[in-house]
Every structure is written in structure tokens, then in C-alpha cells.
Amino acid sequence: MIQVSNLRVDPRTVDGTEQSELRAATQALLKRLHIHQTDIQSIELVRRSIDARKRNNVHLLYTVRAQLVGSTNAERALLTKLTARHDEKNVSQITPAYPHYPLRKNNPLEQRVVVVGAGCAGLFCALSLAKAGLEPILIERGDNAARRTQVVDHFNHSAQLDPESNIQFGVGGAGTFSDGKLATGTKSPLHRLIMETLVDSGASREILWDSHPHVGSDVLPQVVDTLCERITALGGEVRCRTKLVDLVLTDNKITGVRVLTTDPLSGLTTEQSIPTRHVVLASGHSARDVFEMLYQKQVFLERKTFAMGVRIEHLQADIDHAQYGTAAGLPGLGAAPYKLVSHLKNGRSAFSFCMCPGGYVVAAASEPEGVVTNGMSLSARNGTNANSGLLANVFAEDLPGDNPLEGLKLQRACEHTAFELGGGDFVAPAQLVGDFLANQHSSNHGKVVPTYSRGVNWGKVDACLPSYITDTLRAALPQMDKRLHGFAAADAVLTGVESRSSSPIRITRNEHCQSIGCEGLFPCGEGAGYAGGIMSAATDGLRVAQALIDSVLNLT
User: What domains can be seen in the chain, in order of their start residue?
Assistant: First the structure.
């Protein structure tokens, strides 16, 4: 198979469909290799990115794999010819290797594995375990995707929060309502397997080659429901509205879990014990009660760096123009994303996070009297505004004492202050960037109308964040504006508070992915401190599943 990278394509020749992309990339490939259409047996898109370094010359870059008629011999001959011309740059002959799920075997366990949390880490871990024949029980404190969507809509309209089922809790985790962005700074051969699984479950094929892939919060509910159906079909079990309340330990070994199950119709709650010797804890970083339970049981926890800040909103058309110039608006380019970071001389940094092109700021609270913001986009990314987290780090030394739960206390305090500044009913405090930089109150919006679903109360956002966060954001905004013109525009909107971007705690584990000092407990994903997004969390879910499979099936 021949792989060719850096194929330049004029975005005006692409209309956003797979057919037009494949057609344009094929023509670029033929020209690059000096061959004809009849020489190609098969072709696939591997990667597409946008080169907008020169706004007057924006173009698409493709990486393509093609199998030639005559296969290996024809490909070798072509490479020899290109090499003789010194024209072999960005062309190589490859043998792709794709990872796969573990092979199915008979379950040797008398007691089933319990996976706690049906976010991306828990879902992919449970799917991998089910494919291996271990018949896991996946428990999730929130609702399935369909009912959860109804619960979230009800909260947005009524301010009546369900602490067990909301934007944080439910099948698919927080990622279901945050656009489903799959871009990651990590590298792993498992990424292709994850992408293919999502496509097989209903996601667009575009995620297989887009350099900034996303699923969309209107598509993700179907995708995560399909993943649950696949787990069940393989002998696993998915229990929604089932909350972990305790780990049963004997001599520092897992012997069971205690759960509360609530009937979604009657509201009746029953307690149950599930015997098990293996628990995958993928409960996410918003399950603060789980951290508190682990602390009481003296499971080893440690502080880690996390981030907090606000959501920043601009008109998407302004971001498009700043990124793409006169090419802005072309269907082949879509809504422009951005990724910004500013490193200050005092050692602190600010950065954009979870950028949602054509998206919305959502109310992401999971506790009473606490305002939390997040961002989401639908698959079309056709909303009026662009939004992103604008965050700065909280380091362990910023917190008092040595209690590993201090980060949780800070998050809660900031969320509660934001609730008070909003005036109740989960209304959020908001401020214009110009007023924030001038350290003065705002009274209304300009051309950027905030999209936060519960509404905003204009004023200042400083009080709901530590001064080292707000000082960092003030210093960073002008620097970021130099990289993306208009980012610090006076009428851009800041909405507080963004507090759930990462876990403030790590549940320390050993090289076999087991908790230190608690045999049979496998911390997993973002909440455990081993991931920072959908892809890295799903990858960690597969990694933990393999470690567990190795430990029980003696495959190491």
C-alpha cells in the first residue's frame, strides 16, 4: 500500500461531503504520483487538515492510502521511479497494522467484573471486557441517553436539577453534551480502533480522517446507546440509575460493592450488594462523593494539577474571518476552530480548552447551588457563536494543607459563589472582555449574545475565581489576541465558572493499573487522573481492560 501525505487541495473544490473530498484527494494523488485512475485498485482518506498559516492562501492537506493494480510489485516499482527522480518526498510504501479487541474466551470468574461509570472510559473498558468474554456489569448513576436528554432539557427550562442525572452524569458521561470532540494530544495505536468503533455505532465516517474530529451532541446519544447494546449482546449488563455508595474491602482487597438503584418511574430506591473481586472505577471527576468515600477508606489519593476559569464567546463569523480570511464560509472549511496558549513570565499559563465552533455554552451543574459552565456543538456546528474554556492551572502548592480533597473544596466554593453572583436558579455571572480587562462591571451584552441556557446576570466574574486565575487570564488575553485577532474584543463574553475541565485528584495505581494498596480496584479515565478528554479516556479504558484481562486470564 502506498501512503502519500501533504496533498494540497483547493477548499473551493470540496463541498463538505465524503464523495467530494475523496474525488479531490484522488485527483491530487494522481498528479503527485504521475499515474492514472486505472492504476488505482482502492483508495482511502487517512487525514485531512487545514493549512491557514497564510490567510490569502488557505488550503486543505490530505494524507491518502492507495493500493495499486499489481499490488506490492507495482508499488515498489513506482517508488523506485520516484526515487530515481528524487521525487519520493511524502511518499512511502506501508503495511498498515490496526489494533483489535481481545479474542473471546470462556469467563473463568465466579464473580463478574463491575465497571463503575458509563462515560467514554467505562464504556470502552466494558466493551473490551465483554469482547473478552468476562461479562461485565456496567453501572451508571445517571439515565440512559434518551431519558437523560429529557432530564437535561427539563433542567434548562425549569432550573430543577437532578443531582444523579444531568450533563455530568448519565450514559456517555460529560462528553455526550460537550460536542464529542475527539482531537487529542496523545498518540496511541488504539485511537483507530476507538474511531472505527464510534463509526460502527453511528458516528460520521469523517472522524476517521479529520484532524479535528467531532461527533456532535445531537449524534452522541445514539452512539452511546448503541455501545451499550453491543455490551449487552456480548453477555455484559448495563444498569442505569445505579449509584456506587461503597466498596466492600477485606484485608485491603475488593470483595464487593454496595449500590443504590432508583426506579426512574416510581422513584423508589433499593440498596443491593454485588459480590466481585474486580472493580474498574471510571466514575469521572464530577463524582465527588466517590472521592470522599475513597478518602474515608484510606485508598491512596494524591493531588494533581487541574484548571479553572470561564467560558469565552465570540461570533463564529468573526473567528472564521480571523482564521481563514476571504476563504471564510466555504463549505469545505466549515466553522473555524482555534487553540491558544499564553505562557507568562511568572510561570503561569492560560489556554483555551474544549473549543466549540458554532456551539453553545451549557449549564453543567451536578450539585445544588453551584453554577458550572461547559460548551457543546451539534454535528453541523452551525450556531451563531463560538465558545471555549479560557482556563489557567491550579497547582498543588496553590492549595492549603496536604488534604488531597482540597481541590474539590476549591471547585465547590467557586461554583457556589458563581451561583450567588448569578442570583439563583443556576443563572450564571457574565462580563464583557473589555470590562474584565478594565476591572469594571458589565451591564449588558454587545453584538455577542450569550448562549448559556439558564441565562446570565451581568457584573464581574472575579469573585468566583482565585485571584491567581483572574490575574493570569487578564495578562493572557492581550497576548492571545496577537495570535487570533479579535480574541480580546471588548464585546466578547465571559461566563463563569468553568471548573470541571480536569480532575484535581489522582487515584494512584501501579504498572498493572491497580490501585496502590487496594487489590482488585482499577482506577480508570479522567476522574482517576489518567486522561484528559474523550480519546485519552477511551484509550485508558481499553488499557485498563487489557490489564484486568491479563490478570485474570494469565495472558501476560
Answer: 2-93 (3.30.70.2700), 114-302+504-553 (3.50.50.60), 305-498 (no CATH)
